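Recap slide: Signal recognition particle protein, sequence and predicted structure.
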Amino acid sequence: ATFGTLSDRLTETFRNLRTKGKLSAADVDGTVREIRRALLDADVALVVVKDFTAKVRERALGDEVSKALNPAQQVVQIVNEELVQILGGAQRRLEFAKTPPTVIMLAGLQGSGKTTFAGKLAKQLEKDGHTPLLVAADLQRPNAVNQLQVVAEQAGATIYAPEPGNGVGDPVKVSRDGVEHARRQQHDVVIIDTAGRLGVDAELMKQASDIRKATNPDEVLFVIDAMIGQDAVNTAKAFQEGVDFTGVVLSKLDGDARGGAALSVASVTGRPIIFASTGEGLDDLEPFYPDRMASRILDLGDILTLIEQAQQAFDEEEAQKVAEKFATDQFTLEDFLGQLQQMKKMGSMKKMLGMLPGMGQMKQQLEDFDEKEIDRTEAIIRSMTPGERQNPKVLNGSRRVRIAKGSGMTVTDVNQLVQRFDQAAKMMKTVARGGTPNIPGMGAM
Ligand code: GDP
């Protein structure tokens, strides 16, 4: 996944460092050299790498490290802080106009993920109670209007598009009319999808710039494909000069990109990354948090995003009930079944587990994690009677044999499930009562 190799190499560098007590200047230089190589190999722009390593080196040789109780830890902390800076520092949210409609214009190369992002954003805005209008101003690419139509339908959003068959329309006029239409129809947000080219070209820039002038957007979001590598900086600069933008959307962060674009764009353009797009589905959109991303890269874990995703997937009321049951020891296999079904909604378990601290070092276990396990567990519980689900203590030998047969599993599978359920219930009881669970075991699953 994105940042995989970079993350591995940085953690490896820090592991070597951790075995040392006091750090000599040579230790620091060695570490900085390794960080520099890792960043360059991850396609981070040279200017950014130079600046970053110079800052890390200076701080690592200074007092805060030599006086620290644990110098190695302090260096990791410095790298973390500087990484957050590179990624833009504080989180920046989408800004809305004081008087609606808020106009959001999208710009970027063809294939960067603009249209997909338009749908994702519309869906998220709808969820938050907005009434977005998608404007199809990409009249260059055949089929672009259609594609936006499909995306809008999936997102449950309204689209404004030129009548088909009218020959080549004027994207500037369509954009201006779209905003006017939104105003009349009381849409509080307008998302304008503009044309992209495979490479940066003057005509495209002029068109985008004209659309900007005609619609006076509150946000111009530059969508950039994280896989673009070393070209990221030039492309971003060209768009900054040609149209200028107020924020960045990183797309395809789920892919095998080396992450260079992500680590270069914000510091080279001085514009914040506002969203991360992490898949082809319309729900694969996350707000971008520089600090959480840095933690992910350094394998310090991204617990906050994990919790937010869990909260989105879990029904609030349901979660409350379950927490009470945990605390009072009333959690049953029936509840467990409900939890598993909710968990499936949460999408890839691997993606989730990858956000836990230290998980980067447990790659193999993650790779081995079998999402079908949830299905098997479900099958076993479904073969139990309601009474058995309520009170697993009644599960004697013959009942277990019956359940194994019914679910197509072995008695050992059934035994393991009951045992794991016990462990999970114990662990969750601790959490529900405000304690810290023993996560590394992950016995819950
Ligand atoms: P546009 O030309 O800029 O409008 O780009 P599109 O939205 O058409 O996206 C180009 C391709 O990238 C499509 O096949 C999308 O499904 C895919 N895509 C867009 N965003 C993402 C993402 O975040 N992750 C992945 N894996 N694919 C994406």
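Residues 411-432 form the longest helix (22 residues).
Residues 108, 110-116, 196, 251-252, 254-255, 277-280, 284 surround guanosine-5'-diphosphate (CB under 6 Å).
(End of recap.)
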